Amino acid sequence: PELEPECRSLLAAFAEGSAALTGCLGRRARPVRLCQGCHGHYRRLLAQYGSIARAVGNSSESHNCAKSILTSDRLQIVVTLSEFFNETWEAANCANCLKNNSEGLSNSTEEFLDLFNKSLTCFEHNLQGQAIDLSPNNYTEVCKNCNETYTKLNDLYNHLQRMNRQGGEAEHSAHLCIDVEDAMNITRKLWSRTFNCSLPCSDTVPVIAVSSFILFLPIVFYLSSFLHSKQKKRILILPKRIQSNASLVNIQEKYS
């Protein structure tokens, strides 16, 4: 039997929402911009599926719409599509870079993406500046001029990771959202592999101190063992000397 007009309207809205979300995911698959570009489509699709599941309208029409659209056949296309989008969204950890109501990006995510764009702009600007260089593999200007921006970006990413593991950003997963992870991976590859830059280690002094202490431990151990064994040897020899002196006195008294 044909669907009721209200049910057809709900199904058509879900079909259009599914097509819009699928197109958005496909267009933003590389570089990955799923969460920041498709959260509006995903939120609307959730509402459209909820309208079908809750079955808006009077009780009889509501029951007919939910049953006819969701569970009337073995394939259950609408349910399958909804589960696919939910699993994709959760696998991307998009909730970890959105606000609680998913209406937009969180403040920390916007700050990260702003630094990410500044880093890419700095890379591009300095590459254009040394285009006349005869050695194209020399990226010293990029490393020098973009070091501050890249360091801030890297530090912020590490901070977001720590906060996320502690549940400060979200409790859904130990990973950040795929947009942030992919952006950081791209930047790190450019910085370390393409430009062959490196970050100065700010913990050099503590590392040297700890390393020196560890290397010095065997010397302390062997020295203390040597002194301890030498002192023990002296303690063992002392009674023998006392005993030999006592025997000499006895011999002198015997023959006197």
UniProtKB/TrEMBL annotation:
| Keywords carried by this UniProt record | Membrane, Transmembrane, Transmembrane helix
Transmembrane feature ranges: 205-227
Q: Identify the InterPro entries for this entry.
A: Osteopetrosis-assoc_TM_1
GO CC terms: cytosol
- What PANTHER family does the annotation carry? OSTEOPETROSIS ASSOCIATED TRANSMEMBRANE PROTEIN 1, OSTEOPETROSIS-ASSOCIATED TRANSMEMBRANE PROTEIN 1
Q: What is the recorded name of this protein?
A: OSTM1 protein
Q: Which organism is it from?
A: Grantiella picta
Taxonomic classification: Eukaryota, Metazoa, Chordata, Craniata, Vertebrata
Q: Which gene encodes it?
A: Ostm1
